[in-house]
Amino acid sequence: MSPIDSPAVRRTTVWIPYLWLAVFALLPLILTLKISLAQMQLGVPPYTPLIGADEVGQKTWLGTLANYKLLAADSLYVSAYLNSVRIAAVSTLLALLLGYPMAYAIARAPQHWRVPLLMLVLLPFWTSFLIRVYAWVGLLRPTGLINSALLSMGFIDTPLRLINTEFAVYLGMVFCYLPYMLLPLYARLEKLDASLIEAALDLGATPVRAFWRITLPLSLPGIYAGCLLVFVPAVGEFVIPELLGGADVLMIGKVLWSEFFSNRDWPVSSAVASVLLVILVVPLLALQFYKTERAP
Amino acid sequence: MPQPATAIEIVEVRKSFGGVVAVDGVSLAVRNNEFLALLGASGCGKTTLLRLMAGLEAVDAGRIIIAGADMTATPPFLRPVNLMFQSYALFPHMSVAENVAFGLKQDGMAGAELAARVTDALELVEMASLAKRRPDQLSGGQKQRVALARCIAKRPKVLLLDEPMAALDRALRERTRLELRNLRERLGIAFVVVTHDQEDAMTMADRVAVMDKGRVVQVAPPRELYDAPCSKLVASFFGESNVWEACVSTEGQRVDCAALGLSVAVAASLPAAGSSVAISVRPERIEFSNVGDNAVAGVVEDVVYLGTVSTYLVRAAHGALIRITRQNGTHPSSVRGDRVHLSWPASAVVVLTA
Amino acid sequence: MSRFPLFAMAVLGLGLVFLYVPTLLVIATSFNESRLAGVWTGFSLRWYGELLNDRQFLNATANSLIVAGLSATAATALGTCAGLVLARHGRFRGRVLFLGLLATPLVLPEVIIGLSMLLVFVAAEQTLGWPAGRGIGTIVVAHATLAMTYIAYIVQARLTGLSRECEEAASDLGASPLRVLTAITLPMIAPAMGAGWLLAFVLSLDDLVIASFTSGPQSTTLPMVIFSAVRLGVSPKINALASVLVVMSAVCLGLAAWLQARRGGKVLPE
Fold it and tell me: Could you tell me if the ipTM is greater than 0.90?
């Protein structure tokens, strides 16, 4: 019994954040599911009620699955979902391929270099996300730095099409989410006992084999965590496909945004969000819980 | 006000953590002005018992009476006892003086009185000159002194110490043992110290409570524990001992020991003939001689030289390994392979029925 | 053994170049006098000067700073409570739900957080009459919810690193539970709270998506201004603005690192 476990203190520290989360984390998701069953209407609020009363005051259920039928029927939505998963998966893989050697190098660097190197890698995470994406816009557009440089050096005659491509989206994703990949990988690799690898080498394993049989298997939890941290936000990403992908790269975050801000169709936006929530986030959350609750 | 006879009385206290029993029906009385050691291997429940006294854990059953008042349900901050933590638990964001003043301030003390009490406590542990330091600027021994000062500044009825020597090196340990004993005499309050080190317990304590599996096995002054342990566990935990299984013989005052191949003469009273017992003989009570109440022959298997004494391991003809400790230079020393005769008096045999 | 680390070191170097060069180029071009990015015509503070005369920019900056300050403070209070719960309360009823809800801001895409928050505000306005329209207040609430998770984890990490014994010792020395909290626990986690506040500040300053959903007509924030300007094309003024933001974030990071690096107690004056 720690002193701060005393009933009064305990109650306060639990209930304040609990209530807040219930109202601003749980309720929003419930409302999203609810409004996804409504229809758009002109007025305030811009959606129909789910329970209406007819002339005699009889309550009737007005909810409808029409929005979900629309999502299933229109190939735009289906391909947006599939595209999002594909682009997020490829981005995650690219981030892993770049991030693993970086994390490994930092973890194997001399002790006094590790923290400064880690800070150096994480510093961009603290500079504005939007600015980092914008920096790539400046580099990649037809009159941007890369094209200007290549043109002026005579390598090309007409500007390359760099922006508004999937390539640009991958670049942006890896650039923005690399720190999320690096941090768990580094945490894992740094804890890895160097003597294990030395033991493997001593027992006759080649360095490559020691890496495959010792380092890689032992860093799997870090890989898993890093991939999850990159994949989940990447699936729902809006800013990167919007600014770097242009009209050609369809992702679900963009669809949701335009349903809401351009079409002002709140119920369809909610349905898009609900599907994203259910098919992607819930399984991942469940998996995460399964892991953490069972961990010793 | 008449002083109650006991500083802390523990009555049938039980405590378990998630099904694991840590303290299993312990009753124990700590007398006024007594230095009591709780001795046991790690996991025997001794630290839990100490934390129950301090109120940091709540009992599952039983009562805790401190200075005559039932404090079973009293929270730690209202109990007139103070605990010195194994890690010392000095507040890292406060200076030495602020650490010592903390407890006094909780009683509403302020101004000159507070300053005087802090200085007194720090002088008592010879730390007054470092009052302005922060805990991370102190050595391990200095931290321990500050933790001690912080507790005694409150003038508790009982001072509880959790493994006070654990973090100290050997030389400092020996000095600190004597200092703690002197401190207790000067303060005139009861000390309860938890330790896993029998030397700590023997050198400091007036009485030692040996704990095993959540129970108190024996409470006695160190000498009595050594000379008359009540069980095999106590005999082996408290100093070195030769312990053998035996069976009470039909002849009077003898037990039959198969391992020694000997009917052992015993001075102590014995249970009924035929009961199984264990006998314990301290290594220093055995002599190289063939005359005595009990004598066996054997071969020296190993000799360990320890400076003032040597320990001999002798294999008896029937297979028992006998440990003997002899002062060096008082007799012709034996070497490995020597055939020797061993003997010990009946009074050296302790009969253990548990 | 040596070949792989060498390769890894090379990737690390390239990765760092990849991470830094684009942003540094933006800062560099913000000092370019020319309107064209590819042509350097000379050093100039002209675009910074234009920023200072831009009412829309100044308004948005003020809005962003107010939102970031308020939401970071709220998030620190909420997140510290949640961190105490995570680190010190063991198991209690509803713990799994608590953990799950706390993790939502980390695992949900921003568009979902933004949209669902907005729906709560609209529903609350319909039924309770509050909040009357959306503005600074609603963004603050949304950002505080987002950031409290990060702070809870930072505070939890700090608390788990500190032994409970200091709290127990204080209690043993006569401090009531509330005194233990205010005199021992909070001062010991103060550096974590400070670092968490700064992180929350930066998160809020940086957020476009959630702010877009939850803001009202009078509460445009800096990222929203930048976003609509970037959609129209790159302009030197945005370069200058971007540089200002980068420097602001870097200052916050420096402060946070300094707070985290200091040992627990030294933050308090003698």
Answer: no
